[in-house]
Write a structure and sequence with these properties.
By secondary structure, the chain is mainly α. It has ten helices and four strands; from the N terminus they run E-E-H-H-H-E-H-H-H-E-H-H-H-H.
């Protein structure tokens, strides 16, 4: 997102949450967060539930297949081999197939908002997903080799790695990142009350949508801007707004206060026009009135009743 002021554009400051260390082809750091232990454990628990259900379904299908085989064909070696195949399909096949066809996400990662990518930010490949799954089964979860010791090693690696990677990520050269923004929602700064009366007299017909969007982005990101950038962008934006509005403000105030008042007045007038339009449509089509919210204080007029008897003869 950029702030457009005249012909110049200023990029927003880098987010303090961007810790994945991913850089675009234009050498710009991407606003992407690396997934940590808590979110990854939650995704793992969801995946375990899915894998348990998958194991039950495949186990039932395998049991039906065994019942169709001749009795003399089934022995302990075949039963053990089928169990190994079932285990591989659930523990290894599930994450590899899901990451291949769901863009680096399993069901648990989809629910939590995570994605597996390469260490350089590119899409994960089948070989990398297979390496992650094999290391996970052998060392991390369920950990067929020294379970307790390997679990402790995995947690230690994730807590000490700058980007929260586990052993499978280090071996495969991958990284798990968040796909959802972590920015904190903040309401727009309210308009200064002494400026409300002045804003009500403004001529806003020449304030186009592009300029209003630039003002909206600036006012919304005031807490994230450095002091110097806040002052400079505010002056440039207010100079553009003042050039297309009148009358001038009655007293001296910060530039962001003028911009917030203009933005609030533009939003108020847009809401008023929308309410009037809904009131008119409700008066013309009363059958649609229950589904439309008319503006407060504007009652809906019912249509005139149909005249009784035959229609009058038109002369």
């Amino acid at each position: 997102m950029v702030f457009t002021v005249g012909v110049r554009a200023q990029p927003p400051p880098p987010s303090r949450w961007a810790d994945a260390g991913l850089v675009s082809g234009e050498a710009v750091e991407l606003d992407v967060r690396a997934a940590r232990l808590g979110s990854r454990v939650l995704a793992l628990l969801i995946d375990l539930i899915v894998q348990l259900g998958l194991a039950l379904v495949l186990g039932a299908a395998l049991s039906m297949l065994v019942l169709t085989l001749p009795p003399d064909l089934m022995d302990a070696a075949l039963a053990g081999g089928l169990q190994v195949v079932l285990l591989v399909l659930v523990l290894v096949g599930y994450p590899v197939v899901m990451e291949r066809f769901a863009g680096g996400r399993t069901v648990g990662k989809l629910a939590v908002g995570l994605r597996v990518v390469r260490a350089d930010g590119g899409p994960v490949g089948v070989g990398q997903s297979l390496a992650r799954a094999l290391v996970g089964v052998a060392v991390e979860w369920p950990g067929l080799v020294l379970p307790l010791l390997s679990w402790a090693a995995t947690v230690t690696v994730m807590l000490t790695d700058p980007r929260g990677r586990r052993l499978g990520d280090l071996v495969a050269g991958t990284l798990v990142v968040h796909t959802r923004s972590a920015s904190v929602w903040r309401p727009l700064p309210p308009a200064v009350p002494p400026l409300l009366a002045w804003a009500g007299t403004l001529d806003l017909t020449r304030v186009d949508d592009g300029l209003a969007l630039a003002v909206r982005q600036y006012v919304d990101r005031l807490p994230q801007l450095a002091a110097a950038d806040r002052v400079r962008l505010g002056r440039e934006l207010w100079a553009e707004v003042a050039a297309v509005t009148s009358p001038p403000p009655p007293w001296t105030a910060p530039d962001w206060a003028y911009l917030a008042a203009v933005l609030a007045e533009r939003r108020r007038r847009a809401g008023y026009r929308l309410g009037r339009a809904r009131a008119v449509s409700g008066a013309l089509w009363p059958e649609l009135a229950p589904t439309r919210a008319a503006s407060p204080g504007v009652p809906l007029r019912r249509a005139a009743p149909e005249p009784a008897g035959p229609d009058p003869v038109r002369r």
